[in-house]
Amino acid sequence: MKPVNETIKKIAEVLRALGHPVRIQILLLLNNKKNRNISVTEIHENLGLTQSETSRHLIVLKNASILACTKQGANSYYFINDKDTFIQGMATCINKNAM
Q1: 55: closest CA among 68, 43, 37?
Q2: For residue 74, how many other CB atoms are within 10 A of its CB?
Q3: CA geometry: angle 79, 18, 2, nearest 5 deg
Q4: With contact defined as beta carbons under 8 Å apart, do 67 and 58 qualify?
Q5: Predicted local confidence at residue 99, as pLDDT
Q6: What is the largest CA-CA distance in the chain?
Q7: Packing angle, helices 6-17 and 85-98, rounded to 10
């Protein structure tokens, strides 16, 4: 069997991370708030989740490099990793098909 290249591994990691409906909802929320960082509080309030549940999903998305995060004081703000063209394409595709 031919070895799997790094690009294929990255695609599999992203698809695995997006394999939960809540994570897709988070991606849609962030995609609809372009050019804006959104706090964990705003995400959990918009989606009706607990803060700890929201944080768990955000960690999965961040570990898969789908989201990036900045800290301002005690608050964390998340946004879609727009430096990755594959992530941009996935976010656009999901947004188009979910609406």
Answers
A1: 43
A2: 5
A3: 115
A4: yes
A5: 63
A6: 50
A7: 40
In whole angstroms, what is the distance from residue 17 CA to residue 63 CA?
A: 9
20 and 57 in contact (C-beta within 8 Å)? yes
Alpha carbon distance 59, 68 (integer Å):
10
Residue 64 DSSP symbol:
T
Q: What range defines the domain where residue 83 resides?
A: 7-98
Number of domains within the chain: 1
Residue 1 lies in a domain: no
- 90 belongs to a structural domain: yes
CA–CA dist 47, 42 (Å, integer): 9
pLDDT tens, N- to C-terminus, the chain (99 residues): 677 788 888 889 999 999 999 999 999 999 887 768 899 999 999 999 999 999 999 999 999 999 999 999 999 999 999 888 888 888 888 888 876
